[in-house]
Every structure is written in structure tokens, then in C-alpha cells.
Amino acid sequence: MARKKSPGPTDRELAILGVLWTKGPSTVREVHEALDQDAQTGYTTTLKLMQIMVEKGLLVREDGGSPEFPESRATGHGSRQDASSANRRGHVYRPTLSEERTQKALIQDLLDRVFAGSAAKLVMRALSARKVPPKELKRIREMLDRIEGE
User: Fold this and answer.
1) Does residue 103 sit within a domain?
2) 3-class secondary structure, 1
3) Is 105 within a domain?
4) Is 104 domain-assigned?
5) Cα–Cα distance between 10 and 12 in angstroms, integer?
6) CA 46, 26, 19: angle at the middle one, nearest 5?
7) Is residue 77 a part of any domain in this protein?
8) Structural domain of residue 121, as residue ranges?
9) Whether this model's pTM surpasses 0.85
10) Residue 60 · residue 93 · CB < 8 Å
């Protein structure tokens, strides 16, 4: 059965993106270790999710080998030790979009699907959903003042 395309990253994909936004480009092992602190997820599950994310265009996979020995990898020459040192890091994954751009896209999707495009409805619902600390309210007021001044 064909997989249903989700409009944006799933919760697990967002967790992976969060690790990559925090740590920077990382291997599957590095992402898995960061995720495993929160929930018991198998390494192969993390790998499969990241492969799917590459297919969806959420991640880019790059050769993460050490640039110290590029000629060994490219030509096949050099000692085995040089080649293994060059491939020490394996494939490295990085997000295709910044955290801010991803958040904006998700908010736009939420605005359109749930709030009929109304930013006011979204903000009112967000502010009424839970107690907002005074410090955050101050930042919101400052942002609104700045927007009004534009």
C-alpha cells in the first residue's frame, strides 16, 4: 500500500529535525543517540525515518568522510588505514530548511487548514490555551507594536 503523504514533518521527523537544528549536520548514530535520551527507538527505525526524510526533501545526505584524505577515497589508492580514517564519520545528514522556515510553513498550513487563514483566531486560541508567562506577553506586545509601526 502506498504511503500517505503528510503535509509536513511528522512528530518523529520534527524530533529528528530538532536534533539536527541543535547539533548541526550529524550521522544517523549521532541523531539516534540524541533521540534515545527521550524514547527507546531502534537505530534502524531512526535510519529508516531519515531515509524517508531524504525522499521527502526534508534532509540532504552528504558524504561525511574526513576531508583529510580525499585522494584515497576518490582514487582507491592509499593505505587501508587512510581509507578507514576518511570514512570514519559515514554519511552526514542536514536539514534542507532552517528551523524558522519550517515553523513558518507549519504555521501557514495550520492557519489555512484550521483557522481559515485568520491570524487573529490562531493567536487568540494560542493565548487562551494556557497561561502565558508575563515575560512572553511582553515580547508579544513588543512584536505587535513593531508590526503596527511598519
Assistant:
1) no
2) coil
3) no
4) no
5) 5
6) 65
7) yes
8) 115-149
9) no
10) yes
